[in-house]
Amino acid sequence: MKRLGWLIPALYIFFLMLPIYWLITMSFKTTNEILGSFTLFPQSFTLDNYITIFTDPTWYWGYFNSIIYVSLNTVISLAVALPAAYAFSRYRFLGDKHLFFWLLTNRMAPAAVFALPFFQLYSSVGLFDTHIAVALAHTLFNVPLAVWILEGFMSGVPRQLDETAYVDGYSFPRFFVKIFIPTIAAGIGVTAFFCFMFSWVELLLAKTLTAVYAKPIAAIMTRTASTSGYELGLLAAAGTLTIIPGAIVIYFVRNNLAKGFALGRV
Amino acid sequence: MSLELKQIVKAVDGETHIYPVDLVLEPGSFNNLLGTTLAGKTSLMQLMAGLEVPTSGEIWFNGKNVTGVAVQKRNVSMVYQQFINYPMMSVYENIASPLRVARYPEAEIKKRVGDMAEVLRISEMLDRRPNELSGGQQQRTAMARALVKESDLILLDEPLANLDFKLREELRDELPRLFAKRDCVVVYATTEPTEALLLGGYTAAMSEGKIVQFGATGKIYRRPNSLQSAKVFSEPPINTAMVKKIGPQIAINKNVQWKARGKAKKLADGDYMMAIRPHHVTPERLDDKAVEIEGIVEVAELSGSESIIHFDAFGQKWVSQSHGVHPFSNGATAHLFADVSEAFYFDANNQLVI
Question: How confident is the model at residue A263 (pLDDT cuts 50, 70, 90)?
């Protein structure tokens, strides 16, 4: 029994990694090979798929578009959520608990519910097919999450720290920027990660609110599959490149993430 | 640098935390704020600092009304029970922080922080982060930050409560020396009567949001003006019993009575609340005139050189504190001796009579 102790984690990791492995090998195959035979390794190794993506603007702009609205969204969400979370963690006001819960209920509706109203609203104010449109649409889901996570981290900082700073002579804005934000830097990192991740993988709203100029990479991937037949190698390469930003962000916040889970808010 | 509170009241959501408080703290004085948890010590300190605005009443500092003035403009320092330091700054930056905000020149900051660290013996730690230090060192850092700028008012909110016994004694012995050369007002909140006595100075005894007595620490201990004050200034809790004085006799009940002597002779006939400190109730007869009390032992706490015996007598919980080891089994009947010449007598309004 003891000798087989490695078996279950090994199996788990095997099944976890299998689709990713498959995606990566596919990205180095030609579409003919993918459709024609079942192979574990690329028989005719090719970088053509990647070359296409890095040279064709309709492809690489998909990545730029995604990164632009994801970054915009993360910045807006944090800028709005930081003061809100501070208020929830430090002050008692009429209906504060209800408001806190109500914020969360925003996340309970599926994105599809908002697709149509958003489409009409953004079109009417001329924001359709802009990066800011997608960024704003995603804040609906990310601001409540950000407030929720940040409030947990902020409540972990004793109120006396604020008072000590005031006693030392810090004004409120100066205290907030110079003392408080560095103190909860880990929490801000975790929050940014979750905002980034949601916005990066969300497809429906991003697809609905864009046409050409702000089209995200995931939308371009689905389009390619439908119009020019089966370019499976190309799709696999695009998919592989889509995983990378998420992996990088996770790598940077991996330690703080554990802390966030420990606080019970993530 | 005198601090004056005039009829200060603080109410939060209709609940009164501080009842009208009048207090004058002299320049250069060391003042203890003595009271149990929730007595309002921290609330009062926040009002003194300017972190909270009083619901009514005025705060005067050096002859100036500072009631609504923000804490940033008041030149105060505060040290909390929890070791509060800026976690992402080095110890050096922590201590330097108030000087930086006040825009002191770099050379001056360096000199002051160095001197302060020297005094508080944390010179070796200046490059470290606060969370890499022991509790005692963290609190020394917080104190260094509070002392580095020349504050007019230094507030210490139970600064030693979270430290272990040894560190607490060490730091407590250093405290008077730290404030010796300053003419600022120091306010030191504590729950422990012993600590107030060791630190000396003045004491304001607080109970349920009121200052029940203010004066020189030793004087308050020897002559509490009210039952509340006596209760605040006694650890273990002071023993109380209703007594009746008829002629020369003072009686708790028909079994426990004695002939009034000394000051007690002057008591008019009537009912009084008697209070006697635990160390005047002993398992051995130390004085021929001591009154014998019979009680049922609830628990006897024996430390190396001291016995604290909790017992039930005439329906009251009493405590005896004595030198030496006096073992009693729980539930046993004990005979203890109260030195009633040391007792206080309070009238129906809990005010001291004798």
Answer: low
Q: At what angle do helices A57-90 and A131-155 cross, to 10 degrees?
A: 30
Q: Which amino acid is at A147?
A: V
In this prediction the pTM is 0.83
CB distance A161–B101 less than 8 Å?
A: no
Looking at CA atoms only, how far is residue B84 from chain A in angstroms?
6
ipTM above 0.90, yes or no: no
β-bridge mates for residue B294, sequence order = B335
Cβ–Cβ gap A171/B77 under 8 Å: no
Token duo for residue B261: 């002597």
**CB within 8 Å of B183: residues ≥ 6 apart:** B1, B27, B28
pLDDT digits (tens, 9 = 90+) for A48-85: 889 988 998 888 899 999 999 999 999 999 999 999 99
**Could you count the other beta carbons within 10 Å of the beta carbon of residue A233?**
24
Q: Where are the beta strands (DSSP E) in chain A?
A: none
Picking from B35, B46, B103, B167, the residue whose alpha carbon sits closest to that of residue A164 is: B46
- Same domain, yes or no: B127 and B151: yes
CATH number of the domain at B297, please. Answer: 2.40.50.140
Contact A168 B98 (CB under 8 A): yes
Residue in chain A nearest B49 by alpha carbon: A167
Asked whether residue A204 is domain-assigned, the answer is yes
Q: How many domains does chain A have?
A: 2
What's the domain range around B84?
Answer: 3-225
Q: Is A172 on the interface with B (CB under 8 A)?
A: no
Predicted local confidence at residue A225, as pLDDT: 56
